[in-house]
Amino acid sequence: MAVGFLFTDARPLVEQPAPPDAEQASAVKMAVGQLRGSDLPGKAAPQNIHLTSQQLEAAGALASDAFKPDRLLVELDGDRINITGSHKLPFGRWLNAGLVGHRSGSGFPKVYLTVGSVSFPAGISRTILEAVRRAINWRGAAIPPLDRLVQRFEIKGTDAIAVVQLPPRSGIVDQLAGGRGSIDARTVLAAYCKLTALQSSKPTDDLAEVVRRAFPAGTAGTATVASNRAAYVAIAMFVVSPRVGDLIGLSDKDIEDCGSQPVAVKLHGRFDLPQHWSLSAALAVTSGTQISQAMGEWKELADSVSRQSQFAVGDPTGFSFLDIAADRSGFLIAQDASDPDHARSAAIRMSRIGQDDILPPSLMTLEDGLPESVFVRKYGSIRDPRFLARIRQIDDELNPSAPR
């Protein structure tokens, strides 16, 4: 008991952050953009990463939003980076951990770890991080040794610059998010290949038809939570990008025989809404509903200050409650299909689904393309009571019989 109190605290070390705003969402979007293409075939070279203090702080704010009530703070302090996290435990306790990293000429930076009231010297701190790396790899990831993972780290003014060797695709997002171990990559691959084969023989641009193909009537009555989850990942690979398969560890080589280009499909005449719906559903079954919801909101916040939407084809820039409705439809439907008591009935519904079941026509009049200034004036933030009331109205339209 005494040891437990030594490593835990009665209060979180990181204060409750404010809800993420548009600038923070946009900052993280630009930071993540540096990593795109880092795991393309044949590209194994280290990556040069340049992050501003604003991007680092924004990353902490968004992480706190996605994993609430846990909290994360990332900030630069002179020639060092401070990373502080607070994880809520049972019985009102908190696990507070801090990591201080100093600039390095080469290799992984010298770090000092603190857990609760216990501080560790640099050598032991590194040993602990190496043990964590090995534990994550044991779960299926492929994180390289520390000195290859971060080959150089320095701070110039208010920016952090690093040379990193990113791990190959291995479903690491799913692993770290406490992902869904019941999603079998082979089942996802088979479902995705079936969708591409059917598209080749009988092309369609209707999202509802794609969903029905992923949940064939002949097998819907024997569906399980695992088969439902696999189907939603396959749909997102088909509609958004095959790279959605990263979430469960599929690589380019795995899918090369099935085709590799997403198919443009429509929902109520728009090409962007199927992408919102299917990606949200896939995130819900791999990383959880909370993360799926948060990422949909961040995307809209970023769009409110962007000249071009992430889903640019047919998707107006600006904050869109219509996009949010498509996101919420995706993760709410996927959440229902992940309930063991509803797995078969949910699959049967998917085998008969129409576009009005995916997104009721009444929601097509929702506000679309709001600039940041208008969104803030009318709704404040994504945790403002006015915004939350609007979300409840959307959910009532999506599932009017659900308890509130």
What does this structure look like?
By secondary structure, this protein is of the alpha+beta class. It has two domains: 2-167, no CATH class; 185-398, no CATH class. 47% of the residues lie in helices and 13% in strands. It has helices spanning 2-7, 22-33, 53-66, 122-138, 146-149, 172-176, 185-201, 207-214, 217-220, 225-239, 252-255, 272-287, 289-303, 321-337, 343-351, 355-358, 372-379, 385-398, and strands spanning 47-52, 71-77, 80-88, 94-102, 111-115, 118-119, 150-156, 159-164. The strands form two sheets. It has a five-stranded antiparallel sheet. Strands 1-8-7 form a three-stranded antiparallel sheet. The longest helix has 17 residues, at 122-138.
List the keywords:
2 domains, 404 residues, 5-stranded antiparallel beta sheet, alpha+beta, 3-stranded antiparallel beta sheet, globular, 8 strands
